[in-house]
Design a protein that fits this description.
alpha+beta; 27% helix; 7-stranded mixed sheet
């Protein structure tokens, strides 16, 4: 069978823990997102959401599920991302297999958004067996893109002078923080450790 297997997941867990920590000054605004890995009909994929036109910022843009830390609700940054994902797309937090935190250069992330964003890598299992129920106030739609498509350099454009990356190989253009985090995950984890998925 294709897709992400327990062997892949164990490798991802190991390599996410091994990647170097980047420490910078504390930021006052903190948020967390999930990079949601899943299998769709036996194909290893990543789940994305497109924000609704009703949200305050980044209307209609593609993003990962997530949001701001709420000190009264969240014990830790991982709980933030899982709580937000459940609120946004109806995927139960307890059903996510958390593989680890993607360590990245916080100052670069902060420069893009003005917020300290922690990306959490989670496995959602076989999405074909689950019914997502996006909250229409926040999410216009959910869609998946196979990892093989995301790993194809043909679908990416790099703007050297701005130092930004854009993915153009899916149903919607992915740019900004989402493209930045996706690029780091693909290069620093999947490609660096040669994790091959079908």
């Amino acid at each position: 069978a294709g897709g992400l297997t327990s062997k892949h997941l164990n490798m991802l867990r190991k390599y996410l823990q091994r990647s170097p920590r980047h420490l910078t000054r504390a930021v006052s605004l903190r948020a967390s997102v999930v990079i949601p890995l899943c299998n769709v009909n036996g194909v290893a994929s990543v789940l994305f959401e497109r924000r609704s036109s009703l949200v305050r910022s980044f209307k209609n843009q593609v993003c990962f599920p997530g949001g701001m830390v709420e000190e009264s609700l969240d014990v830790n940054i991982i709980e933030t991302s899982l709580r937000e994902m459940e609120e946004e797309i109806g995927f139960p937090a307890k059903s996510v297999d958390v593989l680890g935190v993607l360590r990245c250069d916080w100052s670069a992330v902060h420069k893009i958004t003005g917020i300290g964003v922690t990306p959490v890598v989670g496995f959602l299992g076989d999405l074909t067996e689950r019914e997502l129920s996006p909250n229409p106030d926040e999410v216009a739609e959910c869609f998946t893109i196979p990892l093989a498509t995301l790993l194809d350099a043909e679908h990416w454009s790099y703007e050297e002078e701005k130092g930004t990356v854009v993915f153009v190989g899916g149903p919607h253009v992915i740019w900004g923080l989402t493209a930045h985090l996706l690029d780091i995950f693909l290069k620093d984890i999947l490609m660096r450790y040669k994790i091959h998925v079908q």
